[in-house]
Write a structure and sequence with these properties.
Layout lengths: L2 E8 L3 E10 L4 E6 L8 H9 L5 E11 L10 E3 L1 H18 L6 H4 L6 E3 L8 H74 L7 H15 L2 H19 L5 H22 L2 H21 L4
Parallel strand pairs: 3-4
Antiparallel strand pairs: 1-2, 2-4, 5-6
Helix pairs in contact: 1-4, 4-5, 4-6, 4-8, 6-7, 7-8
């Protein structure tokens, strides 16, 4: 389900902005966008996200602005010694494996995060800053969920309209089923009488012969079990819309079952009117399938 939420918080030294956006996805997928110094917060962000979101491709963006440098003035330039030493260890190991090469100091200073200037200079403590980021994130998620709830209410109304349309088609099929058997019985009688007449036999079709063939035909055309199961699935579908929490995956399975019953009805009934209604139901189910991809 699509959604958007944003929040801003201020402290004496830091302004935090968190934006949460989502697009449809059958699974939960987090895309975390932030400056390099905040990259280690991704695990904490995902932990908070999973408390409220179950499905969707979620993009969480962190933006910060420091009101004053953590150390020194805004023009201060510092080198992250720990990070530089880590880079050098890896470079020396790679050179040793290659068997030759030299380390250029100027090139090392160009590596990401080695040189901190301006408002990034100094040692940034993510543990100290995380509570503010977390509060900003939770507030953005609150706005995000509120938007999704509004969209979900509109989607629920549309799903129930599609449910009612399928129910009406299923009811019409159930009412049509006895007439289908009757028409096939009359067609069988007519064909038998025509066959006797063309062969020159002067006798009418015996009632018990029609009854026996009609019984066999009625058994082949019987769709009562399929219509009962289809209506049962529709009742369950309605319960999911009205009361179930996070029914997205259940909807996927239920649609498959309704489609299976609908196909069986179409193949067994052998009637033009029923076939038209089966096509209509399958079209409605396809619309539902597209919608439930947005349902958490």
């Amino acid at each position: 389900m699509t959604g958007h939420g944003e929040s801003t918080r201020e402290s004496d030294s830091l302004s935090t902005v968190v934006e949460v956006r989502s697009v449809n996805n059958r699974h939960l997928k987090l895309v975390f966008r932030a400056e390099e110094t905040l990259a280690n917060l991704e695990a904490e962000v995902e932990k908070v996200l999973r408390e409220t979101v179950k499905r969707g491709s979620i993009v969480v963006t962190f933006k910060s602005k420091r009101k004053k440098p953590v150390q020194g003035s805004a023009s201060q330039t510092l080198i992250d010694g720990n990070l530089l030493r880590n880079y050098l260890c890896q470079i020396r190991e790679a050179i040793g494996m290659a068997g030759s090469g030299e380390i250029l100091a100027a090139a090392c200073l160009q590596l990401p995060g080695v040189v901190l200037t301006g408002n990034l200079a100094g040692s940034i403590s993510l543990e100290e800053e995380w509570p503010q980021w977390e509060a900003t994130l939770r507030e953005a998620l609150h706005h995000f969920q509120a938007m999704r709830l509004r969209e979900g209410a509109a989607m629920a109304r549309e799903l129930m309209a599609l449910h009612d349309a399928i129910h009406a088609e299923a009811l019409a099929i159930s009412e049509r089923a006895p007439e289908v058997v009757k028409q096939h019985r009359e067609r069988l009688r007519s064909r038998l009488e025509s066959a006797f007449s063309q062969s020159g036999l002067e006798r009418n079709v015996e009632p018990h012969e029609i009854l026996r063939e009609t019984a066999l035909l009625a058994e082949r055309l019987d769709i009562s079990e399929e219509t009962v199961r289809l209506n049962s699935h529709l009742d369950q579908f309605k319960r999911f819309v009205e009361r179930e929490e996070s029914p997205g995956r259940k909807f996927d399975f239920l649609i498959q079952e309704m489609l299976r019953e609908t196909n069986t009805i179409g193949s067994k009934a052998s009637d033009l009117d029923v076939a038209h209604r089966v096509v209509e139901i399958k079209g409605l189910l396809e619309r539902i399938r597209e919608l439930v991809q947005n349902v958490e």
